[in-house]
Design brief:
Order of helices and strands of chain B: EHEEEEEEHEEHHEEEHHHH
Shape of chain B: globular
Number of domains of chain B: 2
Number of strands of chain B: 12
Oligomer: heterodimer
Radius of gyration of chain A: 19 Å
Number of helices of chain A: 13
Structural class of chain A: alpha/beta
CATH topology of chain A: Rossmann fold
Largest sheet of chain B: 10 strands, mixed
Helix content of chain A: 40-55%
Distance between the termini of chain B: 80 Å
Shape of chain A: globular
Radius of gyration of chain B: 21 Å
Number of helices of chain B: 8
Strand content of chain B: 25-35%
Number of domains of chain A: 1
Strand content of chain A: 5-15%
CATH architecture of chain A: 3-Layer(aba) Sandwich
Order of helices and strands of chain A: EHEHHEHEHEHEHHHEHEHHH
CATH superfamily of chain A: P-loop containing nucleotide triphosphate hydrolases
CATH class of chain A: Alpha Beta
Distance between the termini of chain A: 18 Å
Structural class of chain B: alpha+beta
Strand order of the largest sheet of chain A: 3-4-2-5-1-6-7-8
Helix content of chain B: 25-40%
Chain lengths: 305, 325
């Protein structure tokens, strides 16, 4: 399955959430790959703790491949290359976890027919090898988003399932932006339809992921003074109404990740060790990522009978 | 009339061939069902002007026409020496039992050639033959072909094989619903001339990371390049089978999890892989001893049989457990 991670703005936790989803799927035994299509600022290597390719690689990455400068993109075995102290010992029964880094000086470029064909070949190849192919797209209606829409509309990819995760923060501006990004006149849905996607099918393959969500009912926020607590509840309810009105409500949501200091200050993978041993991260955060990883292929969560 | 096309023969215009090298990529056909002979023939019709070859014994095997690619570039060399060469590379795709897709490219390099480019008609009359400018440093180029010191712009048969493979995989007749996930393996191979009086031999067969394998052969004069390519396709096919089955057994966590889970994970092996093992089914007689050497060390079939036996034992245990009241 192809999973495209998109967002209208930066700072939505798109990369860190996607990397955590990939990590938890691999822990559960799936073969997973992560494609850093974040043209302009490749960050996945930092999250996976692969310092040798921090900020992208000099050449031979995904950008070089799509522009025809490399006949296949560089791939890195995360279990073997990471310097993360926990990940270095690959757990028994885990699947492959492979990172395809972007080029350091990638940047944007136009979608030509050649790069579409290379995209088709790449996705077909990865689909044959991996259970989950996670593609981290750069923010906004970028070249990367256009390419993903174009390639998945092509008949060569029939039978290859694709899902879209749209990441946003749980704020008024972000809810509005995410809704416009998905359903607005220049949004993913209309862009997809213009390229030949079926409108209902594409809409059905889109879900939202909320990040840095502050829940007034759980500590420490539930322990706030009464006035602050009441204000937070009112705001949160207002946000829920806004989200529902804009098509970003519960039924369109795949999951939500709580506000987590570890993720705010250091984008990283959240492991059992962080939660149960060193206890730097909250158990809710770990559970949120595990839930997201599970729901990714759970047909119930996607309204498939 | 054009010169003889047989790449193994020496002609006046074309000096003696001393090196053959190639690369073959192997993968599972991305389709829910195994293709029939007719379906496979349609899929592998890579040229309109030549027919697809199909054989049904001892297993279903379909081979595309040879597709020539003209090349004028440097050969890979371990030392970094620039050896320019001109000629054509032969690419083909094959499908075994409607399931295993292979795409390979290979070429024969002559001992020497003129220091200038000849007219294209000369090269076109010798499909699959590449002539160097000057004398060929064959050992240096052989090492380069196996991966040491590859530079961008050098002749890259892997890229030609890959292009052939992706061209087939892009075919809309395929439903992209393979019964299981698997990796593409790549075998890079070189065949140097054996010393006078020596028979063919397999000098090495090594596994590198990421599904890359390397083989080095020694062949006496007179063995056509196509025969060497045939042997390497066969090696690559069985190496893919072994690699894939090892991985499947590993992933099933046989012996450490509930037997039923393991069986679900191993089911595709029983349904789609176990009947495909048939070493040397299409290897020319003079090259069969090379397979026999591989059977002794590292013992391809021995490892395959142990895996198959483990799966069958597990099936038997599960059946027995079901029969208990």
């Amino acid at each position: 399955m192809l999973v495209f991670a998109a967002s209208d703005k930066g700072g939505t936790g798109r990369s860190v959430t996607s990397a955590n989803i990939a990590f938890h799927r691999a822990l559960a035994g799936d073969d997973v790959c992560y494609l850093d299509f974040d043209f302009g600022s490749p960050t996945a290597a930092a999250v996976f703790d692969v310092p040798s390719v921090m900020g992208g690689i000099v050449q031979g990455g995904l950008h070089s491949y799509l522009q025809g400068q490399a006949h296949e993109p560089v791939r890195l075995d995360v279990w073997a290359r990471t310097e993360h102290p926990v990940l270095r010992h690959r757990p028994a029964g885990s699947g492959n976890l492979v990172l395809f880094p972007g080029d350091r000086s990638g940047g944007e470029f136009a979608v030509g027919n050649d790069s579409v064909i290379r995209g088709i070949d790449l996705f077909l190849r990865l689909h044959s090898e991996f259970d989950v192919v996670l593609v981290d797209l750069s923010a906004g209606r970028s070249y990367a988003v256009d390419l993903a829409l174009e390639v998945t509309a092509r008949p060569e990819l029939h039978g290859v399932g694709a899902r879209w995760l749209i990441h946003h923060r749980w704020t008024r501006q972000h809810v509005i932006a995410a809704s416009g990004f998905a359903f607005g006149p220049r949004g993913i849905l209309s862009g997809g339809v213009a390229r030949g996607h079926d409108v209902e099918e594409l809409r059905g393959s889109m879900r939202f992921v909320r990040a840095a969500v502050l829940d007034p009912e759980t500590p420490p926020w539930s322990l706030a003074p009464p006035a602050q607590s009441a204000w937070m509840r009112t705001c949160d309810q207002g946000l829920h109404r806004l989200a529902a009105d804009r098509g970003v409500g519960y039924s369109a949501m795949l999951g939500s990740v709580p506000l987590e200091p570890v993720l705010q200050w250091r984008e990283q993978l959240i492991t059992d060790e962080d939660v149960f041993s060193s206890r730097v991260a909250g158990p809710e955060t770990l559970k949120a990522f595990q839930d997201l990883a599970g729901k990714l292929t759970d047909d119930d969560a996607w309204g498939i009978p | 009339m054009a010169g003889p096309a047989n790449t193994g023969e020496r002609t006046e215009q074309s000096p003696e061939p001393v090196l053959v090298f190639g690369e073959v990529h192997t993968c599972l056909l991305q389709h829910g069902q195994a293709l029939t002979g007719r379906g496979a023939a349609d899929l592998l019709r890579l040229r309109a002007d030549e027919r697809v070859r199909l054989s049904e014994r001892p297993n279903l095997y379909v081979r595309s026409p040879d597709v020539p690619t003209g090349v004028d570039c440097h050969l890979p060399s371990a030392s970094g020496a620039k050896v320019r060469a001109v000629g054509t590379v032969t690419a083909r795709a094959t499908l075994t039992e409607g399931r295993l897709l292979q795409a390979g490219a290979h070429c024969t390099v002559t001992a020497d050639g003129p220091g200038r480019r000849r007219r294209w008609g000369h090269y076109l009359a010798r499909p699959g033959v590449v002539e160097p400018f000057g004398t060929l440093p064959e050992r240096d180029v052989a090492d380069g072909c196996l991966g040491a010191g590859r530079r961008p712009g050098d002749l890259d048969l892997g890229a030609i094989a890959d292009r052939t493979l992706t061209r087939v995989l892009r075919d809309r007749a395929l439903d992209n619903q393979p019964p299981f996930k698997s990796q593409v393996t790549r075998l890079r191979w070189v065949a140097l001339r054996a010393a006078d009086g020596e028979g063919p031999s397999l000098e090495r067969f090594t596994l590198a990371g990421d599904g890359l394998r390397m083989a080095e052969l020694r062949l006496p004069a007179g063995i056509p390049a196509a025969a060497a390519a045939g042997l390497c396709h066969d090696l690559a096919l069985h190496d893919w089978l072994l690699t894939t089955l090892v991985r499947m057994v590993e992933r099933s966590r046989l012996g450490s999890t509930d037997g039923r889970d393991a069986l679900t994970a191993l089911r595709p092996a029983v349904d789609h892989l176990m009947h495909l093992w048939m070493p040397a089914a299409r290897v020319d007689q003079p090259l069969r001893p090379l397979w026999e050497a591989l059977e002794r060390e590292p013992g391809f079939t021995r490892q395959w049989q142990i895996l198959v036996q483990r799966i069958r034992d597990q099936l038997a245990l599960q059946t027995a457990a079901h029969l208990q009241p």
